[in-house]
Amino acid sequence: MAAREAAAGPRGPGRDEETALLYERAHSRHDPCWLLPVPPRLCLACVLELLPEPCVSLVRKKHVLSCFRDALLRHASLVMQLVAQDQRICIHFINMLFGLLCNVEDGSVIDLCIEVLIQLTTQLKLEQTVRCLLDECHKQLCNMPSMRGSLATLTLLGKLVDAIPPLADKLVMEHSNLMEHLLRGLVYPNEGVRASVCYLYGKLYSSPVAAEMLSGHFREKLCPLFLSTLDGAQTKELQINCLGWLRQLLKYDLFVSVIMNESSLAESTEGVEGPPGKTSLPLVLKKLLLSRDETLQVASAHCITAVLVHSPAKHAPAFIHADIPEFLFEHLSSSSEVLVWFSYNCLILLAEEPLFFSKCHTVYGIESVVRSLQGSLRMNNTELHKEGLLLFAEILTRQPEEIKLFTSSTMCRDAGRALQEAVNSPVLEVAAEAVKAISAFLRKDHQSALPVQYRELRALLEAMLNRCADFSQTPLNRRPLGHASSRDSNKAILRRGKFLLSTLEGFRNACRLAMEFQSEPSAHENPFTAPGAEKEDTLEAFSEFLLSACDSLCIPMVMRHSEQATQPNLMEVFLSILHSLFVIVPHMKEKFSKKLASSSFIRLTLELKARFCSSLSHSDLNQVCSSFLYDMSLNLLSAPEKTEPPSQEELSAVSAFLQHGLPEIRSRSPESLAFLSDRQYVEGIARQRQYCILLLFYLAYIHEDRFVSEAELFVAVQSFLLSLQDQDEHPPLTVIRASIYLLAICQDKDDALAEDLIYSSPVDIARKVLIVLRTFLRRNEDVQVGGLIRGHFLLILQHLLVEHGASPSGDSGNLPLLLSLLSLVQLKNKSEQELDSMAMKLLHQVSKLCGKCSPADVDILQPSFNFLYWSLHQTTPSSQKRAAAVLLSSTALIELLEKTLALTWTEVDSPRTALLCSAWLLAASFSAQQHAGSLQVHQTLSVELDQVLKVLSFPKKKAALLSAAILCFLRTALQQSFSSALVALVPSGAQPPPAPEDSALAPLGTSQVLSLVIGLQNLLVQKDPLLSYACVACLEALLDYLHARSPDIAFHVVSQPWNRFLLFTLLDAGESSFLRPEILRLMTLFVRFQSSSVLSREEVGHVLQGAALADLSTLSNTTLQALRGFFLQVQSMGLLADESTAQTLHVSLEGLSPSTSSAEPPLDMLCLGGVAVSLSHIRD
């Protein structure tokens, strides 16, 4: 031995270490093949002999074992080649190491033995060695009188099963009696032993097969012991191993039910902690949550989650009754992201149980949630952001309305700001969760803490909409063409659609919120807003913002997305938003509806119904589409741009058929046209559907959305009208109006629509069409049917005059209606419009028609006279002269007019009163035009002057318009000094010669003048505006006439005391009644004729002072003209006593001079009681 050592050379540190690894007494006998060729230079044979040797120190054994472990780790293949040469050696090595494990008490040596044994068995992969080791363990545990020395064996078994999971099944099947020893270990007082038992159990139950075989064992014996062990664990090792075992158990429904049933038994007895031997898992986990150890807190939260995922409804109440939510909410303020995440997770599951809310845990914890969310958003942990937002959304969604979540507007504001920060996240998944939370946040009971934070809500909605807009505008990644790139593009579009849908749902909830707050007066505005400050925190401002945001963001986003994909659920939400805005901003609903209609939303909605609702699917979408079209249609009909709105009765009729018919429309435009064209018998529901289709086409067309062929639509509407005729139906007036409009718009210029429907149709059908046309024209302006009607009706008139000769009225019951239409068309024309050749031809035909009638033909003459009168007064002076020449050339018309005027003396208050009014107005117009233009007279018009004066001197109270018309005629005669070439004023019969003093007044007499003045005074007292105009104008003309012939009589008439009484009677109508134009003109007369007994100088001063103080800008042009005339007359007579007042009034009038020279107001032409009247003709 010494020689060998000498041959090896001197010893150094390395040699000493290698020597320590060799068993010198036996190494020389060992074959060199057992020596490792690499450091550490370990002889495997020496290890086998050294480790069991009693005389070798434990320190050396530990060193050798440590080096062997290192060799296994560093040179596993070399070691395994040596060990695996002979299976007997493997088994011997295992037995030797196990023996060392069982016979030493040094913990570090035990750990080394266990580690080496695990490495050997896992590296060798020999079933026999594993079986050998299991048998040794089994034998050791069975032969051990107590559990005191079992710690090492139990630890080895646990780590062995951990390293080789299939051993769990083998251990349970082949060594089942070990379970009893494990039970003993679980009640052993040493927590180290119990920790090793729990660890082993955890590994056994991690195998589904083993777990199933051990299910009875757990249910019958193990469960209460396990819970009490977990509850009483003091060392962290035991706590961790128990929780690890629990996590394995909680993977299975069976064990969850067993544990929770055991827990419920414990909770059902008196005392919070339960009786001895009974432990509640929720209470144990609650205790761990309250510990200061973060690892235990996380593990506890993890286990709570593991229980709840099986059935929140079944198991959540136990945790809620244990007040666990309270402590989970507290943990949300932890700096540990893992603990916060698990707390979020637990709370999300607990939120599925209504008890979670009824116990008011959310009210307690909502502030913690908001604070935690604000804090987590500052961290770079996307999963944490998502989980927090998911919890917040769940609470906001499930919170009962009767339990207010936010107790102050400050809390509500903080929550909104946290959501605003979250929705701005660059991570799409986080922003998507934020949008869902925002949608749940926009609930009335969440926002009812006063004052409502409308400004904050607006900022939140703007952030959500802008985030969605940014995402929707992000360009798609366009790869080279191929299936993969197409799939990626489709996925991207679907992602965008999903995000857009969530955004729209949030916006819809905001709209619903605004609608609900409309009935809450306290929520309309912030009572703490400073006076005079701009009120942004009001419901009205918020509602207008919703409309603006929808217009500028929602609509463009949806339209852009619909170009790529159309999702019915998205469009349902979108249309419900548009529908709700009609209610939210009622003063804008008509304007908004017009914008939508002009943007093709009628077409869009009909296409959606046809595409998705044709097979009775998507009933919710169909209902939303129908409701949207219903309200938009009524809005459009209620506020037409250039027409009078329909009556309430008409709107009610439209409402009725829209409600029934719109849900039935599910076809595309060609099918709808075909359905409209159906001439077969149409029943009620189908007819209402036709009404709806027609009305929608009409509304679309008037807003320039012509999405069907005009030619096809024309044919369809014609067929529809013929179907109505066939079935003798009377549709709502709006439907016929729409039909006529569409026919007028769609027909070709050469089509004779009016001849087809009026001239060639049966009388009753033609009459219906004419009635509808007349109503249509009365309510509509600036439509393209006027020209068509005039042209076609000229042809009809020509036909009638040719066919029916001298008595056209006897054979055409529709002629009066046709003439009414002509007069209405003329009324719709603008003032000062030249009469074209068509108009002149119509004048000629109508005058010929009148000449063939008798005064008894009132139904024909009344509209004809109206047409002639309007044609004279609603045109330029040059056209007036031409028109008057045409009419005066008709001797038959003049003769008819004379006969009609003569009826005035015998038929006052008769049904012909309106015709008499028109006749007197026409006579006055003819006379004025003939006199002004020196037109040729073919037939004179004889009128009995004394009868005229008699009618005016003793007027009838119910004939104001007739009196005004006769006054207009008399005024014209007075202005012409009774010298008209057309009008011949004749006596009624034999008259006595005039008195000498009356010769200057001829053909009037003094008594007649005085009687006429009294009559005018009586008429003025009636205070009828139109009649008052006519009286004052006639009085002006009379005084001018008298002053030119006998000034004394003129002054005598003006100075009558009765005039003062008359003036003050008229002034008694109100504080500013002196500013009425007829009174101003009357006072101007009194001033002009120096009648101080009627109006004194002081009273003139009072009038001027009142006028100077009045707001002249509010007065009409007619009043201003009368006031200027009064002022100038007073000035010319030297009656301006107060120069400052005069100067003020003068400046005011001069400042308004441009308006006095403006055109007459558009209401100059009126139809009063069926009589065409020009206000300027009566007044001036």
TrEMBL record:
<dbReference type="InterPro" id="IPR016024">
    <property type="entry name" value="ARM-type_fold"/>
</dbReference>
<dbReference type="InterPro" id="IPR052133">
    <property type="entry name" value="Immune_Signaling-Apoptosis_Reg"/>
</dbReference>
<dbReference type="InterPro" id="IPR011989">
    <property type="entry name" value="ARM-like"/>
</dbReference>
<protein>
    <recommendedName>
        <fullName>Meiotic double-stranded break formation protein 1</fullName>
    </recommendedName>
</protein>
